[in-house]
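Need tokens for this chain, all 452 residues.
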Amino acid sequence: MFLTHALRSLTRSTFRRKLLRRPSARRPLARRPQVESLEDRCLLSSYTVTDLGTLGGSASFTNGINNRGQVVGDANTPGDAQDHAFLWQNGTMTDLGTLGGTVSQAMGINNRGQVVGDATTPGDAQEHAFLWQNGTMTDLGTLGGTFSVANSINNRGQVVGFAGLPGDATNDAFLWQDGTMTDLGTLGGTSSAANSINNRGQVVGYAAIPGDTTAHAFLWQHGTMTDLGTLGGTFSVANSINNRGQVVGFAGLPGDNVSHASLWQHGTVTDLGTLGGSSSNAVAINASGTVIGESTTTGDANDPFIYSKGTMTDLYTLLPAGVTNLTVTGINDRGQIVGYGNDSNGYFGAMLLTANDAKNVQTDDASRAIIATLGASQGDSQQTQIATLGQSQVLVVSPLSPAKATTASPQDTVNFRTPRNDGLHHFVASQRAAGAAAAWEAIDRVFADFDS
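Here are the structure tokens for all 452 residues:
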């Protein structure tokens, strides 16, 4: 029980001031898009900060963002008596309600606009995971206990989090799909929690090891939970996974006196370092491999960071003067970052950070990675190329055969095909889209139709 509560305090939150803190291989593509190394082209840009507002109270907090720029989190209602889950889009913050109680929080959102989180039931008697879509909040239940928390949802509508077991003495990671909540087990101990799921159904989080002495980051796929290991210490936690299977979080160093932001890929864990201080934590990773998190500095301050091309940069150096106390919580594949803190006017609340440079290559690389991950390939008979659209957005296209190209309509720009049995999309294009907006529309359609 002590281990469970200790680890929750290290990971993402559920009810920030009131309740808990949240703590077989894929078939290869027939032909991978020939793209230059994403890491070789990552540059940084300054950011514009957008205040997302509140639900009538004095503060708001973010927890996630999707590729359409929709943001979720929780915000104070009038009088600051309650926190409610919100969905922010196009300048408007919408209250998502509760499960009959007084408190709720949105933790994640997919590209179809489905939102997950946790909310109290009537009388605030229990805390349950929810799925919100089309104006309706659905209770996802528990694993036999009285509480559950949903932390992440992928584009297939699969939801992960953690839920109490009978008696509430401990909790296990769960995968919810089509009305059924499945216990993902542990690494031999008595508790676990899932923090993130990608579109391939790979799940990451942390789980107790035998004896419950500590917990390790895990990767769950195809019914098997694998220990991701540490940086030489005894503990680790995985916070996020992208569609390339890259995992980030933090892990203890030898002696367990400090922990560093960590990247797991290809069976290897990499120490991402710090901003000069003793500890750091990687919170999220996008399709291009750009990582955000927080780190102590040489002056023992706790600053947000962005990590790319092997370099950790203090995010404050890229933000307007006066932004302070920033906690970053999410990054999308277009490079937009969400978090909460004080802006240059002293206002504390949810923020959206958008790169100022229209040619920002993080956005460019993110677009490339989105399609590369989904598998833009029609097989050996067609070559795959990168087409740059506008100044920054890119689209992967597989040219039509000469015979079909001569009869293709000018409006027949992108033809989407159903996913192959490896779960990946492929599509072809008869011509380059007219502009950047068309590229993003196509990308959004890939995500929105992922489970079709």
